[in-house]
Write a structure and sequence with these properties.
- There is one protein chain.
- The protein contains 20 helices and 26 strands.
- The chain has about 850 residues and is α+β, with helices and mostly antiparallel strands.
- α8 (about 215-225) packs antiparallel against α9, α16 (about 640-660) packs across α19 and α18 runs antiparallel to α19.
- The longest helix is centred in the last third of the chain and has 23 residues, at about 640-660.
Length: about 850
């Protein structure tokens, strides 16, 4: 198959499209694909039922509801997952349900219910259901991997027909095709390996009787997953040795309902023992869906952290794979030319995106006492990785540090680009915790540029630590707390899984011009890797561009909130994987924005490109950024970053609708709690309201830019696993209904519809990698359509600041906001 693809490339005059760039840039190999489940659905109409309303227990409501859904599934059962939780801010209980068939987990059989006051507000459902009662549900040998690659190959061949390799104006298309070439190469190079291996006597006869087919299936996956062609060849040449070297340890439990699990040691190219379990996954088969028995593996490698499903029986086919590591893309950049009261930090302050827009200044350890009760430099000895060897009588005592080491973030250099981190270098600011370090890199010869950048590692690590802690505290206040799966070593008895602070690598030596974040399930450390960018001389340090850091940390946010904290496989590919990128761009852009509107490019300073690393800057002007839902059908929009760019642009338009209606707040941080723990309303929240029973309603951010952050995070909690653009849109609209009673229903719909996500939007033939034929929808719900003429425009000079004591200008202004195009107005008015 690959030979046919390369021949097609050559025939189109693009023979170099798969060649590595001339830039000294490392590309991280990554696998990510899986079947689209045609029956998966997200329902947003509230379900009122007398049987449900009888109970005040949201979990009992969920059980009653799910039992009705699974009643007709042969051999079906379910478990309510332990990472279900009640959002204290909204009162919504997010219940995550996993399907079991004949006692075996259906790994992609999920129902997520959002319950409040006995009502199921919304729910997503991807439970397996045989097409006909009593029908054969199990499939012994299906190959969605091959179907995925065939679909991708057809799309590439179709796009090649529209590209003239001899014309320079097609450079953008050629660059996009280059990216797609890597996607095809990495994911499809070993598509025929299962059949080849099943015919290999050395592979089939290797001794692994104790582990069944676990090691064979895992070894086949490692051949495809390793970025080392030499290692792949070595494994293929000596499969028996590698199989016999691996050691499988099964875990057995005396009591309780525990699925069978195991670990595998000595796995080639894995940096830790591989975790595994037996499960079913769903595979579309014509117009029906069947179950495939698989080994589910969690494989931590140097540059990847995979969750893979490999068929349990030979031939061992890869059914689906999600990379928990998410990248920023590598831009096509030119080769650089040759040549006492808490800590204080000399940094680019919060809101200064990068060195091009501001100077460094001394900032205090301005931690939020609700989000970080111990501050940023303290944690209990019991949760401290550096203290695990100590035998303390009272391990609950608090360790105060003078380095960039605390409860939320461990920040340090990683020049070796390896997985070591506990003993890596980090700056020590002394007893007074004054992190004031020089940063003044100079133009050097190319061979000395790396050493010049490394001179300023103290300033770099300090900046990464400062930005990361502020992101932690900000997202905490909008609902990314312990029970929702945030990243902390100690959770202060507030629920969730502990010991998972972010490991933040500055100047990571494993590459250039990139950044990535690995998000395992709650209770395992997230890992953020920031790189130097050799796009200028002196090198530019990604740690100093806040938007890149925020984007990467937002992967942890969206992955943990979507589908529940214990499920990291919900944003793996296609539209859902793209939105994982888009939320990062949107939140980074929202955080850096100010009340004097302007367009924003992503990664422009680090990449040394004015227009940044996306196709377009984020803009309300369609002549600057024309992206709509239909844009996803264009060449170059198969990858998750391009898909994410469209999602971020749509959110940017929607957010500015809310800003036009509610105004703009300069500081996105909510007021800090008072000494008694209550949250003051200040000028940030609306006045607290109460329901008929006297219970306080959720606090509602007053301004448009803070409100949209709340709705986006609440929407992540409400949406199903593996959401589509439609699902995420509906979840945000449902979040507004829950938070405000739906007062922004029309503004939200109008914003989405203005970029093609109206009620009449549709997609046909959606593929796992994001393909399909889309139709822009521009209609809004009937209740938002109006043919009423606008009120009379106020007389000149009679604006909202006329001090005449009335507000006769606002009916006209409100009409303008509601009926204008998304880029014909600016805020504030």
């Amino acid at each position: 198959m690959r030979r046919l693809f390369v021949a097609a490339i050559a025939a189109a005059g693009l023979a170099g499209v798969l060649a590595h760039d001339s830039h000294p840039v490392s590309r991280r190999k990554t696998l990510s694909f899986g079947p689209v489940l045609p029956h998966a659905a997200y329902h947003t109409n509230p379900v009122y039922h007398t049987r449900l309303l009888r109970s005040d227990d949201p979990y009992e409501v969920a059980r009653t509801f799910v039992e009705d859904l699974v009643r007709d599934i042969p051999g079906g059962s379910y478990q309510i997952r332990k990472d279900s939780y009640t959002d204290q801010a909204t009162g919504v209980t997010h219940v995550y349900v996993r399907q079991y068939v004949n006692g075996i987990e259906v790994a992609d059989g999920d129902i997520n219910l959002n319950v409040k006051d006995g009502v199921v507000l919304s729910y997503g459902d991807s439970f397996f259901r045989p097409k006909e009662a009593g029908a054969q549900a199990f499939q012994r040998d299906v190959d969605p991997h091959s179907e995925y690659c065939q679909s991708l190959e057809r799309e590439i061949a179709d796009q090649l027909q529209h590209i003239d390799g001899s014309k320079p104006q097609h450079g953008v298309d050629r660059d996009a095709l280059t990216q797609l070439g890597y996607l095809y190469d990495w994911n499809c190079q070993f598509v025929n390996l299962p059949d080849f291996m099943s015919e290999s006597p050395d592979f089939a006869n290797a001794e692994d009787a104790a582990s069944g087919d676990v090691t064979r299936a895992l070894l086949q996956f490692m051949i495809a997953a390793t970025p080392s062609e030499e290692l792949s060849a070595e494994i293929l040449g000596n499969t028996g040795k590698y199989i016999s070297d691996m050691r499988v340890t099964f875990e057995h439990h005396l009591a309780g309902d525990h699925p069978p699990t195991f670990t595998v040691d000595n796995v080639p190219d894995a940096v830790n023992p591989v975790k595994g379990r037996l499960a079913f996954v769903q595979v579309p088969n014509g117009d029906a869906t069947s179950l495939q028995l698989v080994w589910k593996f969690e494989v931590e490698m140097k540059d990847n952290w995979y969750e893979a499903a490999v068929s349990a029986e030979a031939p061992h086919r890869i059914i689906s794979v999600v990379d928990w590591a998410s990248d920023s893309p590598v831009p096509m950049a030119p080769i650089p030319p040759k040549g006492g009261e808490g800590a204080t930090y000399n940094v680019f302050a919060w809101g200064i995106n990068d060195p091009s827009v501001g100077e460094r200044s001394i900032q205090k350890e301005n931690f939020d006492t609700l989000a970080s009760p111990l501050g940023w430099h303290a944690l209990p000895y019991a949760n401290d990785p550096e203290s695990s060897h100590l035998r303390l009588k009272d391990s609950s005592k608090i360790r105060n540090t003078t380095t960039t080491w605390g409860n939320n973030v461990f920040a340090h250099e990683d020049w070796e680009g390896r997985n070591n981190w506990v003993n890596n270098y980090r700056p020590d600011a002394g007893a007074n915790k004054v992190f004031d370090f020089k940063y003044n890199p100079q133009v050097t010869l190319t061979d000395d540029a790396l050493e010049e950048a490394q001179k300023y590692i103290n300033a770099t690590v300090t900046q990464l630590f400062y930005t990361s802690n502020l992101v932690h505290d900000l997202y905490y206040r909008y609902g990314f707390n312990e029970v929702a799966g945030n990243f902390q070593q100690h959770n202060f008895g507030r629920g969730g899984q502990e010991n998972d602070a972010v490991i933040a690598n500055a100047q990571d030596g494993s590459g250039y011009n990139n950044a990535n974040f690995m998000t395992p399930p709650d209770g395992q450390n997230g890992r953020c890797r920031m790189y130097l960018w050799n796009t200028a001389n002196p090198y530019r340090d990604g740690d100093l561009e806040a938007g890149i850091v925020i984007h990467e940390l937002s992967h942890g946010l969206s992955t943990r909130l979507t589908g529940g904290p214990a499920n990291s496989g919900c944003l793996g590919w296609g539209e859902s994987g793209g939105m994982g990128e888009g939320w990062g761009d949107f939140l980074a852009t929202t955080i850096r924005s100010n009340r004097n509107y302007s367009d924003y490019a992503m990664g422009s300073w680090a990449a040394n490109q004015e227009k940044g690393i996306r196709n377009y800057p984020y803009s309300l002007d369609e002549t600057v950024n024309p992206s709509t839902y239909k844009t996803l059908d264009k060449p170059g929009y198969w990858g998750v970053h391009a898909i994410g760019e469209v999602w971020a642009q749509i959110l940017w338009v929607v957010s500015n609708r809310l800003i036009a209606k509610h105004g703009f707040v300069d500081d996105l941080f909510p007021p800090k709690p008072l000494d008694d723990g209550t949250i003051p309303e200040g000028d940030f929240y609306r006045a607290r309201e109460y329901d008929a029973q006297g219970k306080p309603k959720p606090l509602v951010p007053k301004h448009g830019n803070s409100l949209v952050v709340q709705l986006v995070l609440d929407g992540m909690k409400l949406q199903p696993c593996r959401p589509s653009f439609f699902d995420a849109r509906d979840a945000i609209i449902t979040a507004d209904k829950t938070l405000t009673g739906g007062e922004n229903f029309c503004e939200l719909w109008e914003g989405f519809a203005s970029r093609g996500l109206g009620v009449d939007a549709k997609v046909e033939g959606r593929t796992p990698w994001g393909g399909g034929v889309r139709t822009n929808g521009v209609r809004v719900p009937a209740e938002c359509s109006s043919d009423v003429p606008p009120p009379e425009e106020p007389a000149p000079g009679d604006g909202d600041d006329d001090d005449d004591g009335d507000d006769d200008d606002w009916p006209w202004l409100a009409w303008v906001v509601q009926h204008s195009t998304p880029y014909s107005w600016r805020w504030p008015f």
